[in-house]
Structures are given as structure tokens and as C-alpha cells.
Amino acid sequence: MNRFAKAAVLTRLRDELARRGSWCGETHIQKATVFLQEVGRVPLGFDFVLYKHGPFSFDLRSELNALRADGLLVLEPQPYPYGPRLATTALGDRVQSRFPKTLETYSGAITRVADFVRNRGVASLERLGTALYLIRESTLEDDYALAAELRRVKPHVSEADAMKAIEEVRELI
Amino acid sequence: MPKVTHEFRDPIHDFISVSNDERRVIDSNPVQRLRHVHQLAMSYLVYPGATHRRFEHSLGVMELAGQVFDVVTHRENITDQIRELVPELSEPDNFPYWRKILRMAALCHDIGHLPFSHAAEHQLLPAGHETLTHELLLNEMHDVWESMAPPVDAQTIAKLAVGQSKAGAVRFSTWEALLSEIIVGDAFGVDRIDYLLRDSHHAGVAYGKFDHHRLISTLRILPRPPVGNGSDGEDDEDESREPLLGIEHGGIHAAEALLLARYFMFSQVYYHPVRLMYDVHLQDFLREWLPGGKYPGDPAGHLAMTDIEVLAGIRLAALNPGAGGHEPARRIQDRDHFRVLYERNPADAEINPEPGEAIFRKVAEVFGEENVRHKRITGKGGNVDFPVLARDGRVGSSIAFSQTLQNLSPIAVDSVFISKEHLANAMRLLRKEGPSIVKAAMEGSAE
């Protein structure tokens, strides 16, 4: 997928998240993208590592900044104390319109992921993203063991929330 | 009585004090090698004073890392909420050990740098200098760590030195992530604080200066700022609590100054078009001059290669038309670098987000690819969102606090260069056809 096609997919994902009430900050886009790439099988090519708020891609952070520098995305400040949102610009819309085949190919995956992420907060996305990462990367198969591992890497997550996150992600994939 | 501390004079921090253990690390081969690696590659061909080396920068990063550690671990600067999230902050007896580890990591964070720092890294070592730093810390310097009493943990030093973004699948605890953020963090990493001040000083430009004393005194470990869960911006219940490095409100203007300094230093010094071209000529030279066109990725080969060997190679190759790398060496030696033909402008970027690529393809087709180069760098300096502790005790986003940060765009370089003999004709071509080339490329990219 070339860079413009990838930009079309990322900005469309953002738009679909916004339509479902997502805050659309960087963390929301990061977590939605890991689901799009790993569950939706959209070949975006980002490397995700387990970071402070769950799976995080430094490549994706660079790409989001590059899309801002290129004028396809813009940072929208919010009233104190809230963090900013990302919005698609008119140029971003134009780039999307030039990739109808790519967007058609991945529209099902984008819709599915946007429905799943919808207006969830970052703590919920942190749990779900971490659950996905552990299900994919860990050798553990038992859900109780995975929930315990999730609590080990994210000690502030409760036992019930860890288990629920594993179950929700299992259902999605 | 034998000395237990030693001092270096430094133009940025006046005096840098080091312990006996730190002195042992400084005297090691990997750190001493940095005396022969220019901090700003061949920027001295543009800014003659910019001849400083990675060695003094490494000392500066170590000094600042210790200062930041002392501020963020001071008991008056830690809230109960943060203490609960980071248990290590409740164990002050361990602070001297962690401070030592942090300073060692800061001192060694650049030991994997290739000759001329970043200039040819992407081409010759795509995985980045951090991979070599990591390897040297674990292997080459093993005996140094073991000789200390008590021995320090090399794995932790290596993690902190390279940071999470370059550590691959290695997992960091919250505490380790915070410590590595002190060194290599996007917003307030001391690596950045030192290089902006130091590079600005040596290049003789004022852009990189800011009140780092004020900034450091206001750094705090804080919970991440809230984001609303829904589009209405309400509901704080579902917030992630993991802590980040931020500032208390009194430091917001110092933080703005740091981020503006970063913006100006990147746009005026690090991405100066002539400097970028010398990077390209150096890359061309190294590819032809190095055996097999490859950088020695093993520790011994790396430690034996500094700017001294490369500069000697350039001088010899420039004098000998039959030598490998003669042409790029001659260009460097004679200051016959490629000239700027095109730089991205807002009007073109509005039509096509990658106008430089369009121009490059057309000009290379007309004048020959060997005579044209394209340099595109985007997205640097885009991360300006960090937590700020307000007067009312709440933690908010820096973007909500600062109009300056709201308007600070990431840096974008998208330039095309051409050899001097083709410059005039290529300029004529662009004056006539430039806008249509940019537009046609955008239309042609559609499916």
C-alpha cells in the first residue's frame, strides 16, 4: 500500500470513529489502528510494542505527525483540561476520494473496528489493546492466565476488567 | 586522600562533576571514541563553529539527567496518586542506585553512533545506532559494569539508554519508562535539552536557547491529561492513569521556548539545505568507499571507525580520480555541493502533499537521475501534548494551556537539489511547468 493509500485508510478510520462519537485523540487512533491491522488484516505495516497505554506504534506516531505536516490531518485543541483531537482536513478528504478501490476493499474492516472502538475511553482501549497484544504475542492460551498476565503488565487494571477485556477481544477476533 | 569526584569544564553547564565509577565509564573505549564523532555531521561546512563532538554532549546529557532525577523524585514534587502508581517513588533509599543507573545510561546513550552521527545512518544502519548502543552496553562494556561495587545492571542501563521506541519487544516497567523518558523523551528528554543548547552555542545561532534551569525545576511526574470519552467531551471515569513526564504550570513558557527552539533549530540548522546536501554526498562517498558498501556492524569494526578515518578517506579519494568515491569526495572537498532547485511551498502542498517527489521525478527524467537528489523529511517536532499541573491541582493538556503550542506545526522538508551545471536550465523548466507537474502527479496517483 503506498503512502497516500495508507493515508486514505487512516483518515477514513478517523472519520468513522468520529461518526461513532470517539474523541479521536492520538491514543484512540493508535488503538483503533492496531485492531484494524491485527484483526481487520489491513496491511498498514506498523510495528506495535507494549507501551504505557497498551500497544503503541512509534511508526504510526511519526506517520500521524507527517500527515499533520502534509496538511491531511489537523490537531484540534479542546477546552481545558482536555487533550486535543485529530480531524481530517479538506485535503485529507481529497486524498480519500482518490483511493476508492482501496477504501472499498477495506471498508468492511474499517466499519467493524470503528463499531468496536466507538466512543470508548482510553482506559478501556488500553485494556482491550493490551488484551489483543497478549492474545497475539503470548504463548498463554488459558484466558485466566492471560488476564493475570494483563494485570501483571498493567497493575492498575482490576481482575474483573482484565477478564472482560480478554473475553471482548476473543469475541471480536 | 584519593579523589572521589572529578570535574570537566563545559561551555553549557560550566562544571560537570563525575564519580570514580562514572570516570571509569568515560575512560572506556566506546565513550572515548565519541571524541572523534562530530555532533552535527558536516554542518561545520555551513556553520564553521559547529565542530563539537558527541563526547561533550554525552557528558551534558548525563549532567542534566541527574538534575531532572533530583527534581522529579523530590518528596515535595510527588503526589500521593503518583506514589501509588509508581511504587519505586516510595523507596528513597534506592534513589542513589537509580540515579547512578540513569546517569550511566545518559552518558552512554550515543555510543552506537556511526561516523558523522546521523548523516548516513539511515542508509548504512537502517535499524539505527541504538542497536549498536544496546549491543556495546551489554557486551563490550560488560567488564566495566562488573567492576563496580555493587555491580550495576547492564540490561537496565541498555534499556534506559535506547528508550522504548528503539528497544523492540523489550518491556519497560512504568518506572523504567519514566527514567528512559528523562533521557530520550519526546518533549523533555535531556538529550534534546542538551543538544539544542549545545548545538546552538557552537553553531553561533540563538534559536536553540531557552531557560532550561526554569524548565527543569518545574518538571513533574504527572498522570496523563484527560480526554473526553465521547464527542461531548464528558466523562472522566474511564481515564488511563499511567504517569508521564510533565510540568507544573510555572514552567509552561519555558516549555514553549524549548519546543520553539526545537522547531527553529530543525528548520534552520539541522535541516539547512546545504547541510542536507553534504549528508547526501557523504552517503554517496561511504557507499563507494566502505568495503562492500557496508558499515562494519560488529563492535570491533564500529569502534575502529570514526570521523578521522572517513575524513582521511575523503581527502585521499578527492585527490585520486581512480579512487572509489572520488566524485562525492571531490564535491565535499571542493564545496561543489548540489544546489537547491525546489523547496515545498504552501500553495503546492495544498494541491499535492508530496510536491517534491513530483518535481524530482520530472527533473530527474530531463537532467538524469545522477544529477538530481530529493530530500523529504516530515513530522519532526509534532509531539507537543504533555501534562501540565494547574494552579487548581488538576492536570490538563499542554495544548489546552498554550496557544503557542496549538499553533506549532510539525516540520516538513521536501526539497529537490541539482548539480550546479544544470541549475539554470532546471530553474527555467520549473518556472514554466512547475505547478502543472505538481498537479499532474497528484491526479496521476488516483486509482
Walk me through this protein's architecture.
The complex is a heterodimer of chains A (173) and B (447). Chain A has helices at 3-19, 26-38, 58-69, 90-97, 100-117, 122-137, 143-153, 159-172; strands at 49-51, 54-56, 73-76, 85-88. Chain A has a two-stranded antiparallel sheet. In chain A, strands 3-4 form a two-stranded antiparallel ribbon. Chain A contains eight helices and four strands; from the N terminus they run ααββαββααααα. Chain A folds into two domains: 1-119; 121-173, no CATH class. With 173 residues, chain A is mostly helical. Chain B is an alpha+beta fold and 447 residues long. Chain B has a four-stranded mixed beta sheet with strand order 3-4-7-8. A three-stranded antiparallel beta sheet of chain B has the order 5-9-6, sandwiched between helices. A two-stranded antiparallel sheet of chain B has the order 1-2. In chain B, α11 crosses α13. The model of chain B is unreliable at 231-236 (pLDDT under 50). Chains A and B meet through α1, α2, β1, α3 and α5 of A and β6, β8 and α20 of B.
Give a brief rundown of this model:
The complex is a heterodimer of chains A (173) and B (447). Chain A has helices at 3-19, 26-38, 58-69, 90-97, 100-117, 122-137, 143-153, 159-172, and strands at 49-51, 54-56, 73-76, 85-88.
Tally the structural domains of chain A.
2
- The third-level CATH topology of the largest domain in chain B is Hypothetical protein af1432
CATH architecture of the largest domain in chain B: Orthogonal Bundle
Class of secondary structure makeup of chain B: alpha+beta
Kindly report how far apart the N and C termini of chain B lie. 78 Å
CATH C-level class of the largest domain in chain B: Mainly Alpha
Keywords:
heterodimer; A: 173 residues; mainly alpha; 2 domains; two-stranded antiparallel ribbon; 8 helices; 4 strands; globular; B: 447 residues; alpha+beta; Hypothetical protein af1432; Alpha-Beta Plaits; 4-stranded mixed β-sheet; 3-stranded antiparallel β-sheet; 50% helix
